[in-house]
Design a protein that fits this description.
Helix content is 40%, strand content 15%. By secondary structure, it is α/β, with parallel strands linked by helices. A hairpin with a 3-residue loop joins strand 3 and strand 4. The protein is globular, with a radius of gyration of 23 Å. It starts with a strand and ends in a 13-residue tail after the last helix.
Length: 484
């Protein structure tokens, strides 16, 4: 088991658990069991964690112990809870579930599911030819051991050339190839952050980055992004100066999930403020290639770095394919060597064949990325049109790049909507996954990476669920107690 959740903690995670959508109202015990399953599904309640005793949870929720007993019984029957006399009850998943690419637990038989939990595209047609060419290049590497902790030289040069083309002169010695962008982040955290160190992140932000920070037991502070305008310069710079974090993790290009693009002036100011307070910046450039509508990108954040304070990470997952686990770190040459030393204790090196595939894809980057931009613009506009037609109460800021919309809903129902959507074949990543402590229930991330017809169909299903929720006979929420 990974630990224990107390009654008051679980009650806080459950929130307004009575307010579950559906065509008819469920008994309280069924609603409670469904809410716990929802927490497991969206990753906010870990597997193997011990749940509070029935009496403790009943007191925290101010309901009868009989209701909790019945809910726990239903969770055991559905395979979401295991109990042993004298040892308590702990969370689990039924045997017909797996871990999806989002980190969510999902059923195995979900081929018909419209998955809006994954913000990634299917592979481009050029991938097959790149793979064939890579196999022809492979023999020249077979006489060696195959371990290249910083990556094969062809790929490091290709990535360095891409940075140089963006106006940031870079050498191969400043590049380390990793097994994806998430792996790059993990290695940087291992090198630069001691357990319990302080980190500033945007809110909302990438959920797997929060998971990586939790793994390092980081103390996280947040800078809240405005839904329509993004970063507030005075607040962001003030947060750096006041909290003086060891690290700050930022996504300046088409931020995940909001889609905002950080202006050049703020990039320069952030680097200067970080240097002044001794903060290192981790800049996630996962979406830098995916601009749309002729949007001109500001210079890379590292352009303004004169003191090796900026470590940039990126990868192939968003513009190319998530199944090609190739990422990279751009830093000073000494930092790259220190990262390689850290890496030896983790996974030694990235697969040579995958790196060769990446070399061939980057050689054809201009054509592949151009096609991706056209594809994403069409799908984004289809999703925006469907939302305007079927869910006009939802507010959305149109992104000029990236792969996601950040929708402000007409009520704090994000998690409840996600649970109900599973029943009609739509998978969602609710707002609380992108923040701390279960906040952002009024928001929902909607990627436009599926075909346009699938996006329109997904919105149709979501609209039906949302309107059913409005018509459902639901128990009134309790008025909060006033404590003077």
């Amino acid at each position: 088991m990974t630990g224990q959740v107390r009654g008051v903690q679980l009650a806080r995670l459950l929130g307004q658990w009575h307010a579950l959508p559906g065509r008819r109202r469920s008994p309280d015990y069924a609603a409670l069991a469904g809410a716990v399953r929802g927490l497991l599904a969206d990753g906010r309640l870990p597997l193997g964690v011990r749940l509070p005793a029935e009496r403790e949870l009943a007191e925290a929720l101010r309901i009868s112990r009989t209701t909790v007993t019945a809910a726990y019984r239903q969770l055991r029957e559905t395979g979401h809870l295991a109990s042993r006399r004298g040892a308590g009850s702990w969370t689990m998943l039924p045997g017909n579930h797996r871990v999806a690419s989002t980190g969510l637990w999902t059923p195995l038989d979900d081929r018909e599911m419209l998955d809006l939990g994954v913000a990634a595209l299917a592979a481009p047609p050029q991938l097959l030819s790149a793979a064939r060419a890579a196999t022809e290049d492979l023999p020249r590497y077979l006489s060696g051991a195959g371990y290249h902790p910083t990556g094969i030289i062809e790929l490091r040069e290709a990535v360095a050339d891409a940075y140089t083309a963006r106006g940031l002169p870079t050498s191969a010695e400043q590049i380390m190839v990793t097994s994806g962008t998430q792996h790059a982040l993990d290695l940087v955290l291992r090198l630069a952050l001691a357990p319990g160190g302080t980190v500033l992140v945007e809110s909302p932000t990438y959920p797997n980055a929060l998971a990586a920070l939790a793994g390092r037991r980081a103390r996280v502070s947040t800078h809240g992004l405005a839904a329509d305008t993004g970063w507030e310069p005075d607040l962001l710079l003030g947060s750096l100066r006041q909290t003086r974090p060891k690290l700050a993790y930022l996504i300046p290009e088409f931020q995940n999930p909001t889609g905002h693009l950080m202006p050049a002036t703020l990039r320069e100011q952030v680097v200067a403020a970080a240097h002044a307070v001794g903060t290192d910046l981790i800049i996630d450039e996962s979406f830098v290639d995916l601009s749309m509508d002729g949007t001109e990108l500001p210079p890379p954040v590292a352009t303004y770095d004169r003191h090796s304070r900026v470590i940039s990470i990126g990868g192939m997952s968003k513009p190319y394919w998530g199944g090609l686990r190739i990422g990279w770190v751009r830093a000073s040459a000494p930092q790259v060597q220190r990262l390689a030393a850290v890496r030896v204790g983790v996974d030694m090196a990235s697969p040579v064949l995958d790196q060769l595939v990446a070399v061939h894809l980057l050689a054809d980057a201009e054509a592949i990325v151009a096609d991706r931009r056209v594809q994403l613009a069409v799908q984004r506009d289809a999703l925006l049109g469907a939302l305007a037609h079927r869910l006009p109460e939802w507010r959305v800021t149109v992104p000029r790049g990236g792969v996601t919309l950040w929708a402000e809903l007409d009520g704090p129902v994000s998690s409840a909507l996600a649970r109900a959507a599973e029943e009609v074949g739509v998978r969602l990543a609710p707002g609380p996954r992108f923040g701390l402590d279960g906040t952002m229930e009024r928001f929902l991330r909607l990627p436009f990476t599926l075909p346009a017809a699938d996006l329109v169909e997904a919105v149709e299903r979501l609209a039906a669920i949302r309107y059913d929720l409005d018509r459902a006979d639901r128990q009134r929420w309790r008025e909060p107690a006033v404590i003077a």
